[in-house]
């Protein structure tokens, strides 16, 4: 879940003066057109909250980081509002809202409506018919009429229009209390966006209903294969016996999905999708007055209606701890959840108090769970998070066992941290440090329009005022240690459920069966009259702005180290990185070394105390390997930069070994290797893909052999790190300090000698398949997942523009040709994608990668459809032009700023560009024709030797039918993992 806390008046010391209160007051004002709006004094987002005449709320924040606007249309309804007899309805309606209206997505509405009415009536008969033969006959009628109706439909027209205005991230999500529709749009397209969205929400038209229903079936089956989702649903069902939070799930039951009702969907839409139950939340490069004028003109036509108020059922008190068990193929874990009988709208301050509790437990550095469990290596990956809801609130905790540890032992560790809160067994400085950490982290969040708009959505959905929302900082600052103890004692007793996730076969899973569905036409080159009307008037032009690296950054030398520098003029935070080039496939001991460093202290501080010292400073450090680089990052409050860098350098010079910690890390590594063999994503995307892409050892199997792992010593690892630290590396800095001040500090404090260093590397080579092959791995799952891989030519930077346009057109988005054909027309997959991928290293080849997530009994059809599209890419003039416009609009409105400038510079340099690559892409795509990407596809993709990878349950897959795609071979886990 997302968390967004507002930061006001940051004091840059450790944390003493940062606890002053900020006065928030709701006031009203009048804009230039005489419209009233609310605002809150001292609001860092400077939000305006309007209420249109029909009751629709509008939240606006002007933040001109780039000429783009993050938009959300939030509806205050979710799966909690589903009828008990038609669960999953809110989520399915979310899907249908992408299908258009009587104006969007149709070439002849009067004729289409006649057929759609027939389908609706038949579905009512279908869901009330028990006889299997009669149901089959009815569904055959539905399928036949659907083909006729689809002849008048224009599939994906909504997505096409959003693509044409350069929207990004077009999507939606449904949870228990909200359904939210997402678009990130160029600021010059707000007029068209408003026209489209206002029409979109004016009515519901369930066109292409049965093909989209099949996509939801796929999504349900995908969830049945997700142990994490099963744990969450079991947790909610255990906590809530009366409230819909627990009695029904967002995706719905198998039985209800098999018996949908268009009539019920329409009733739901007409009940909850009304203006006074909706909000528009926008943040970005906008003008308040002109934006609200546009929104008022377009959205005022939405109807206002009384919305039913669902009284929250009163749950029986949980007086003794509850337990439940979930079984599945993935690694074991334990999840624990407290039900807190407090409704957020009735007590907005409660969520802030709960947030304090959560951060005292887990903050990534110095929380009780962070230090007492993770840092102390008493369990793996322990965590906590809060889930505030309108009726009740929840605190979630969880973790994974060490080798040989029981789930009950992990549960006891988590409960002990709750006891520590009750007894005050935590240090006095931790509460103000948490507040300071929040202030620091939200400085970064304020740089995201998404986070700003998310905050508006939360306030609206919870039904609390904007003042109450941003007042969270004052509440956090006022909380004392005794109040924490009192809160924990009052709310954390036996009112929890523990869910044990154990390994095993889940015999209770019900698969949603595959119905017989005929392909329907998508009419991809048709346009509705509405489409033509919207786009007949050109939008204002925004010209692209490219980076001039000579002006945007400083590439210099500090001592003997190459340095990249850019000044942060927006806030008081810094990020500094030391980067070592390790080569393409470095010594795997580096990963062990970095893991070990996290558990080391010095002769002055233990590892736990070191984390505490950094947390007090509002700073943190981390190690990671990204591509060919080992990166040490130090970040935080600039005023504490010198103290933090001094502390970091002291740690490097004076680190002390910890043999007990190293032994546990080795045990954890071996357990993680075993756990990886139970993770279908790791099996397919890492192990199987690595096995077929490389000859012999590959980046995934380049690990320390178990016998070698067991004998590596602490002294070896510390010596290896110090040798690396003293070698030549790059310094990258983004922060408020001047380059002169930075250079002075690093010259004085950075102890590295900058020596040359010979690095151990393992050579690897890519395989060159001469014929098609099919490899499969057996895995207990409802669905099946398929990857198609084809090696193409070696990297050539001149192909990058054509690659981007091809991916946009063919298979990289919801508006792409692959998505239209495989999901919209043929209902063959919920998740589907096909792209031509750039390698990370310019010395490596290109690969064409296609993915299909589908039901096991549809593999043959899905593969046939994907291969047909890849080998015979259809032409669509409209889709091609939309793809061009989408890329050009995106580049024109994209602004690379802040730390991104430095990252962009290094990425371009790695790929062979010394200037901003976006200019070459924009200039090339501007003049491209369909023949260019057709030639590209024919030259680099068409009929290349293809490797097909399949993971699924062997008793659900027809292997005989797969032989037409090449030799079929089963792979063992030992083969693909190398151990």
UniProtKB/TrEMBL annotation:
<protein>
    <submittedName>
        <fullName>Zinc protease</fullName>
    </submittedName>
</protein>
<dbReference type="Pfam" id="PF00675">
    <property type="entry name" value="Peptidase_M16"/>
</dbReference>
<dbReference type="GO" id="GO:0006508">
    <property type="term" value="P:proteolysis"/>
</dbReference>
<dbReference type="InterPro" id="IPR007863">
    <property type="entry name" value="Peptidase_M16_C"/>
</dbReference>
<feature type="domain" description="Peptidase M16 N-terminal">
    <location>
        <begin position="65"/>
        <end position="104"/>
    </location>
</feature>
<dbReference type="Pfam" id="PF05193">
    <property type="entry name" value="Peptidase_M16_C"/>
</dbReference>
<keyword id="KW-0862">Zinc</keyword>
<keyword id="KW-0482">Metalloprotease</keyword>
<keyword id="KW-0645">Protease</keyword>
<feature type="domain" description="Peptidase M16 C-terminal">
    <location>
        <begin position="263"/>
        <end position="433"/>
    </location>
</feature>
<comment type="similarity">
    <text>Belongs to the peptidase M16 family.</text>
</comment>
<feature type="domain" description="Peptidase M16 C-terminal">
    <location>
        <begin position="712"/>
        <end position="872"/>
    </location>
</feature>
<dbReference type="InterPro" id="IPR011765">
    <property type="entry name" value="Pept_M16_N"/>
</dbReference>
<dbReference type="InterPro" id="IPR011249">
    <property type="entry name" value="Metalloenz_LuxS/M16"/>
</dbReference>
<keyword id="KW-0378">Hydrolase</keyword>
<dbReference type="GO" id="GO:0008237">
    <property type="term" value="F:metallopeptidase activity"/>
</dbReference>
<dbReference type="GO" id="GO:0046872">
    <property type="term" value="F:metal ion binding"/>
</dbReference>
<dbReference type="InterPro" id="IPR050626">
    <property type="entry name" value="Peptidase_M16"/>
</dbReference>
């Amino acid at each position: 879940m997302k968390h967004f806390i507002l930061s006001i008046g940051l004091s840059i010391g450790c944390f003493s003066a940062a606890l002053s209160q900020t006065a928030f007051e709701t006031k009203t004002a009048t804009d230039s057109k005489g419209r009233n709006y609310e605002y809150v004094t001292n609001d860092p987002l400077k939000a305006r909250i309007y209420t249109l005449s029909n009751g629709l709320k509008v939240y606006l924040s002007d933040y001109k980081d780039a000429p783009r606007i993050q938009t959300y249309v939030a509806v205050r309804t979710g799966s909690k509002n589903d009828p008990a007899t038609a669960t999953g309805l809110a989520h399915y309606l979310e899907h249908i809202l992408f299908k258009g209206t009587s104006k969007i997505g149709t070439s002849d509405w009067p004729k289409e409506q006649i057929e759609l009415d027939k389908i609706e009536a038949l579905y009512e008969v279908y869901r009330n018919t028990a006889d299997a033969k009669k149901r089959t006959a009815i569904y055959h009628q539905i399928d036949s009429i659907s083909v006729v109706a689809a002849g008048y439909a224009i599939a994906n027209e909504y997505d096409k229009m959003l693509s044409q205005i350069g929207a990004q991230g077009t999507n939606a999500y449904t949870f228990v209390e909200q359904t939210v529709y997402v678009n990130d749009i160029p600021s010059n397209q707000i007029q068209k966006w408003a026209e489209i969205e206002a029409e979109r929400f004016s009515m519901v038209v369930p066109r292409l209903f049965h093909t989209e229903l099949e996509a939801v079936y796929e999504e349900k089956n995908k969830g049945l294969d997700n142990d994490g989702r099963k744990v969450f649903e079991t947790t909610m069902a255990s906590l809530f016996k009366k409230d819909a939070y627990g009695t029904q799930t967002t995706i719905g039951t198998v039985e209800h999905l098999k018996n949908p009702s268009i009539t019920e969907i329409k009733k739901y839409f007409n009940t909850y999708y009304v203006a006074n139950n909706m909000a528009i939340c926008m943040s970005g490069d906008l003008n308040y007055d002109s934006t609200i004028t546009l929104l008022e003109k377009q959205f005022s036509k939405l109807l206002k209606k009384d919305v039913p108020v669902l009284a929250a059922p009163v749950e029986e008190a949980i007086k003794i701890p509850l337990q439940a068990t979930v079984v599945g193929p993935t690694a074991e874990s334990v999840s624990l959840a407290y039900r807190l009988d407090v409704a957020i709208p009735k007590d907005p301050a409660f969520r802030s108090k709960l947030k304090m509790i959560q951060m005292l437990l887990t903050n990534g550095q110095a929380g009780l769970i962070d230090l007492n469990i993770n840092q102390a290596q008493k369990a793996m990956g322990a965590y906590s998070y809060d889930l505030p809801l309108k009726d009740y609130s929840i605190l979630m905790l969880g973790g994974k066992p060490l080798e040989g540890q029981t789930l009950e032992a992990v549960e006891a560790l988590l409960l002990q941290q709750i006891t520590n809160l009750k007894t005050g067994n935590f240090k006095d400085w931790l509460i103000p440090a948490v507040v300071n950490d929040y202030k620091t982290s939200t400085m970064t969040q304020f740089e995201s329009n998404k986070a700003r708009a998310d905050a508006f959505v939360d306030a609206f959905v919870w039904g609390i005022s904007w003042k109450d929302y941003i007042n969270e900082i004052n509440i956090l600052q006022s909380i004392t240690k005794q109040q924490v103890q009192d809160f924990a004692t009052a709310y954390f007793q036996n009112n929890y459920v523990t869910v044990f996730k154990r390994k095993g076969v889940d015999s209770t899973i019900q698969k949603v069966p595959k119905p017989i569905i005929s392909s329907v036409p998508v009419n991809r080159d048709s346009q509705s009259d509405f489409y033509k009307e919207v786009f007949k008037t050109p939008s204002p032009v925004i010209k692209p702005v490219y980076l001039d690296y000579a002006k945007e950054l400083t590439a210099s030398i500090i001592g003997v180290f190459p340095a990249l520098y850019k000044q942060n003029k927006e806030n008081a935070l810094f990020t500094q990185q030391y980067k070592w080039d390790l080569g393409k496939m470095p010594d795997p001991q580096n990963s062990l070394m970095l893991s070990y460093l996290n558990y080391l202290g010095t002769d002055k501080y233990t590892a736990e105390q070191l984390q505490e010292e950094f947390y007090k400073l509002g700073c943190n450090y981390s190690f990671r390997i990204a591509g060919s680089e080992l990166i040490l990052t130090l970040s935080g409050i600039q005023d504490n930069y010198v103290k933090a860098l001094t502390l970091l350098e002291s740690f490097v010079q004076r680190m002390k070994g910890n043999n007990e910690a190293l032994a546990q890390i080795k045990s954890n590594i071996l357990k993680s290797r075993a756990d990886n063999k139970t993770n279908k994503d790791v099996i397919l995307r890492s192990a199987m893909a690595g096995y077929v892409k490389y000859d012999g050892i590959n980046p995934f199997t380049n690990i320390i052999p178990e016998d070698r792992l067991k004998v590596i010593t602490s002294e070896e690892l510390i010596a290896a790190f110090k040798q690396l630290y003293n070698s030549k590396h790059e310094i990258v800095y983004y922060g408020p300090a001047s380059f002169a001040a930075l250079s002075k500090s690093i010259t004085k404090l950075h102890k590295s000698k900058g020596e040359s260093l010979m690095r151990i590397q393992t050579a690897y080579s890519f395989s060159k398949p001469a014929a098609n092959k099919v490899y499969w791995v057996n895995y207990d799952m409802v669905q099946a997942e398929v990857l198609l891989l084809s090696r193409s030519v070696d990297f050539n930077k001149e192909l990058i523009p054509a690659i981007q346009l091809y991916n946009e057109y063919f298979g990289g988005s919801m508006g792409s040709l692959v998505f239209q054909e495989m999901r919209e027309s043929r209902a063959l997959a919920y998740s589907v994608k096909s792209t031509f991928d750039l390698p990370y290293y310019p010395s490596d080849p290109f690969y064409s990668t296609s993915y299909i997530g589908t039901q096991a009994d549809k593999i043959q059809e899905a593969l046939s459809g994907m291969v047909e599209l890849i080998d015979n890419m259809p032409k669509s003039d409209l889709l091609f032009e939309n793809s061009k416009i989408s890329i050009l609009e995106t580049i024109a409105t994209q602004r690379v700023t802040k730390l991104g400038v430095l990252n962009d510079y290094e990425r371009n340099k790695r790929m062979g560009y010394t200037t901003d690559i976006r200019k070459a892409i924009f200039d090339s795509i501007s003049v491209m024709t369909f023949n260019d990407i057709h030639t590209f596809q024919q030259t680099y993709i068409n009929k290349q030797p293809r490797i097909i990878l399949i993971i699924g349950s062997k008793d659900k897959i027809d292997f005989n039918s797969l032989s037409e795609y090449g030799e079929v071979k089963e792979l063992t886990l030992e083969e693909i993992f190398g151990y």
